[in-house]
Amino acid sequence: MTNFPTTIEQGPQAGDDLLRIVRINEEIKRVVGVSFKINIMALNAIFLAKRAGTSARGFGVLSNEFRVFSQDLRTCMDTLTKLVYACVNEVSVMLQDMRFTRLLIDAGKLAPQDALTAILARRQGKSEKHEAQLASLRRQLKLAMEDAFRMVELGGVLAKSAKIEAAYGQGFAVPLAQVSGEFDNIVEEIHLSLEALRRSAFFTGN
To answer: How many CB atoms lie within 10 A of CB 117?
Structure first.
């Protein structure tokens, strides 16, 4: 009987990939939660800037930019989530195919070898298609992750600018500085999450 090592030997790798994807999804959900928090913080910051008057006009503009940033970040995370679900689907199908292939090989010990070889060859072809699809999704997910990372770097620039604008807030300088500091901290939190995702073994293969 012809050997089909690729299909069977993918088992441990596919299992590891599934675990890594689940971890990536958990981190993405955490970032989504933080993006909602940024939106609420930005709304409060806009109200605070209005109370401060003309001296905090620049701070108000930046706070509104944070609302846009929050919405863009959620859209970006939605894209990542869809790609993650597609990856989970591909890996799940591959794992199921491997289980069936093992069963067929076991059953083949009692069946005509020619028939079994033809069946396994067809399954191997399907397995290679799923492997190629997963590789494509992996690349798309990595690119989408890089887009998210660049967006968060822009959020960091907004936070730094808000700190500068807070200094011009006169009597509101202290509360404005506190809010800008919170923006900076939360953007840094997202930055660290995405940095961890970029290092995921799902992308590096380590």
So the answer is: 14
Specify whether the CB–CB gap between 25 and 81 falls below 8 A: yes
Question: b/e per residue, 177-193, with b = 16+ CB within 10 A?
Answer: bebbebbbebbeebeeb
- Using 50, 70 and 90 to split pLDDT, how confident is the model at 70? very high
For residues 3 and 74, give the distance between their C-alpha atoms in angstroms, rounded to a whole number: 47
Q: What is the pLDDT of residue 100?
A: 87
pLDDT at 146 over 90: yes
| CA 4/CA 92 separation, integer angstroms | 19
| One-letter amino acid for residue 48 of the chain | L
